[in-house]
Specification:
Length: about 90
């Protein structure tokens, strides 16, 4: 399988604590976690620095996650299971 770029929305739904989600968002959470588990087994997940920054910002601003906890989620959730790809200017 080819590399798969995962956008920040997928990461956010996967990383948010379930008690903070509505029923509809809980379904999205479960789908996103399942998707990432399958892709991780293939070792093909790719992210960009922009996605890392967006996920960190959204966790802090929208969901009120403490900065240290947000950094931990980024380290363990994104960087641990994916490959960082540098996006060059065209």
């Amino acid at each position: 399988m080819d590399k798969v770029f995962i956008d920040s929305n997928i990461w956010i739904y996967a990383l948010i604590s379930t008690e903070e989600l509505t029923q509809e968002d809980l379904i999205k959470h479960e789908i996103c976690v399942s998707l990432l588990e399958v892709l991780y087994q293939e070792k093909i997940i790719v992210i960009s620095t922009q996605v890392i920054n967006e996920v960190h910002w959204i966790l802090i601003r929208k969901y009120g996650v403490k900065d240290e906890d947000a950094k931990s989620k980024v380290d363990l959730g994104l960087l641990e299971i994916s490959r960082l790809s540098i996006i060059n200017k065209l």
